User: Which sequence fits this backbone?
């Protein structure tokens, strides 16, 4: 009986510790500033206020512009949706080829794609910056000639490209592992019946891929939404994604530190991935494990 | 692209009378895979090679191709031992060992402890488990922001403890250059230990219950069962967790910046922040890329044997 009590006690203590930062963040974001600097961060808000949230959303200063973070949330949304969809779809096709249409050397190809998941991104930053600079040059030429850049040099397009490329390893891994267990006999039978490559993919593989699509999309969404290194290196100023904007709000060295506004902004930045976690936590964990545990 | 695709199409060899349509059908799978593989070849392998080339030049704010041999690496090597005053590279390496060591050890220990505790047929596991795991959904910037507030001596934990009456309590690590890196480790452990817990819990649940029953019949205590049977079975998961954590520690970048607030004075320097500042703010791109190559080699030394063994296991 005492052992059970100790076990439950420990588990609850840990749960409190893990929960504390989020609770403190939420409470801080609902307090006026003097209550934060003068009071105790563990106390419930005395004068409950939503002003910090309004300010974080609409009028907080990121660098020199003071229009809140709403624009940056939009930047992230515009970047994350195409990046997730393209990399997931490519991953599905790659996984399909690597399991059902094997060719000599498929293992080496997969191994090389898999290693791409683990490179430190520092080792590609300089070439990437150079190439994106070149794309920007092309965009400028196009603007001069036609008045439209066709997406060349656009920071959002650049980030989509970067995230698609460096997400390919993981998405291919997910789908490859999933299709490995999918009965090859079905594919063979369809082939004998005269179905082609894409027909088999669309009619047989895709309708059975919902679980792995969910896992991949959640994993990619979380990763890309939370990225900071690429966002801060390849997108500047008003075109930054949410994480970069949050970092800039929190680390401005001018004026009084508005803890409540900072925390409101941080919760807004965290909200999409937290919502995904609450709604689809099972898949979220499965995705992480699939990406981590087994090749 | 041609290098990817083996010219011998097994099918084509068996039936030499294939027409163009059949031939095309045989090539479709490779053509579908080719763009992705080409992207990886260029953006991962090509770019890494490019960085390697730059590391042998004296590139400053822009890349150039004045080759200076191993000079950038020699510089890093001499900085490795420059302790008075410590060079940024020395600080980065020391911090890497401190942060990496604490991060890996505590994540493993906490993860295993939580997994074992949760595995005792706990009521409410469905509520507890997500609470340990949710930090993973947050970005390192958000995690850093939260912990910076908690650890802030003016308004955070120190202040809260003072309010309780323990006024001599002192906890200002986040503003103390010598202690900053420990704050980064605390935030990192908070973020990732739940994930390690999930890995271990999955492994525990996967253990054949027959073995455990047999141990129980033999009269083994719970402690002995864990020590002698369960943990040895879980060795592969330990290995995976260890490798993933090490690799994450080496890559850590945003957490350092956000917990410390821009890494003031380079006190919480890690190789990743060193690379960034030498490349993009100090205009020493040659040195920066050399440090990136060192990072890459370190990770490759860990990952390549691991991936090789993982892929080889499967027939």
Assistant:
């Amino acid at each position: 009986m005492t052992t059970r009590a100790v076990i439950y006690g420990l588990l609850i203590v840990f749960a409190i510790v893990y929960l504390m930062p989020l609770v403190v963040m939420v409470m801080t974001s609902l307090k006026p500033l003097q209550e934060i600097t003068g009071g105790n961060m563990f106390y419930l808000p005395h004068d409950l206020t939503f002003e910090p949230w309004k300010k974080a959303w609409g009028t907080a200063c990121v660098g020199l512009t003071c229009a809140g973070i709403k624009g940056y949330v939009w930047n992230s949304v515009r970047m994350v949706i195409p990046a997730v969809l393209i990399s997931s779809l490519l991953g599905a096709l790659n996984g399909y080829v690597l399991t059902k249409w094997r060719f000599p050397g498929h293992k080496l190809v997969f191994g090389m794609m898999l290693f791409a998941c683990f490179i430190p991104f520092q080792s590609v930053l300089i070439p990437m910056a150079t190439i994106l600079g070149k794309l920007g040059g092309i965009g400028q030429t196009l603007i001069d000639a036609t008045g439209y850049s066709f997406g060349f040099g656009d920071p959002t397009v650049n980030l989509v490209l970067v995230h698609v490329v460096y997400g390919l390893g993981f998405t291919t891994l997910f789908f490859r592992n999933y299709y490995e267990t999918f009965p090859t006999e079905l594919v063979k039978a369809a082939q004998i019946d005269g179905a082609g490559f894409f027909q088999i993919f669309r009619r047989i593989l895709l309708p059975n891929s919902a679980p792995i699509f969910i896992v991949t999309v959640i994993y990619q969404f979380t990763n890309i939404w939370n990225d900071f290194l690429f966002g801060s290196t390849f997108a500047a100023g008003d075109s930054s994604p949410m994480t970069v904007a949050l970092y800039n709000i929190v680390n401005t060295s001018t004026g009084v530190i508005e803890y409540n506004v900072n925390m409101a902004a941080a919760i807004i930045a965290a909200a999409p991935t937290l919502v995904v976690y609450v709604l689809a936590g099972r898949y979220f964990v499965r995705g992480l494990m699939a990406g981590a545990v087994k090749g | 692209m041609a290098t990817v695709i083996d010219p011998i199409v097994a099918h084509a060899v068996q039936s030499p009378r294939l027409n163009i349509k059949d031939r095309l059908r045989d090539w479709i799978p490779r053509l579908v895979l080719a763009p992705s593989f080409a992207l990886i070849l260029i953006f991962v392998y090509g770019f890494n090679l490019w960085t390697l080339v730059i590391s042998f030049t004296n590139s400053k704010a822009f890349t150039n191709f004045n080759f200076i041999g191993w000079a950038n690496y020699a510089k890093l090597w001499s900085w490795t031992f420059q302790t008075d005053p410590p060079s940024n590279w020395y600080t980065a390496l020391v911090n890497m060992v401190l942060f990496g060591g604490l991060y890996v050890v505590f994540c493993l220990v906490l993860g295993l402890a939580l997994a074992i505790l949760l595995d005792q047929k706990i009521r409410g596991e469905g509520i507890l488990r997500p609470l340990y795991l949710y930090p993973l959904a947050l970005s390192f910037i958000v995690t850093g922001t939260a912990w910076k507030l908690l650890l802030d001596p003016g308004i955070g934990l120190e202040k809260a403890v003072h309010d309780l009456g323990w006024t001599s309590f002192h906890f200002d690590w986040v503003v103390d250059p010598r202690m900053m890196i420990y704050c980064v480790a605390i935030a990192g452990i908070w973020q990732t230990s739940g994930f390690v817990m999930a890995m271990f819990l999955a492994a525990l649940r996967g253990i054949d219950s027959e073995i455990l029953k047999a141990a129980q019949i033999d009269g083994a205590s719970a402690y002995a069962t864990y020590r002698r049977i369960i943990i040895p079975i879980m060795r592969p998961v330990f290995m995976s967790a260890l490798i993933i954590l090490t690799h994450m520690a080496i890559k850590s970048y945003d957490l350092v910046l956000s917990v410390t607030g821009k890494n003031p004075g380079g006190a919480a320097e890690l190789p990743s922040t060193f690379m960034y500042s030498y490349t993009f703010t100090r205009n020493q791109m040659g040195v920066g890329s050399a440090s990136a190559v060192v990072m890459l080699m370190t990770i490759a030394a860990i990952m390549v044997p691991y991936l090789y063994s993982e892929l080889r296991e499967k027939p």
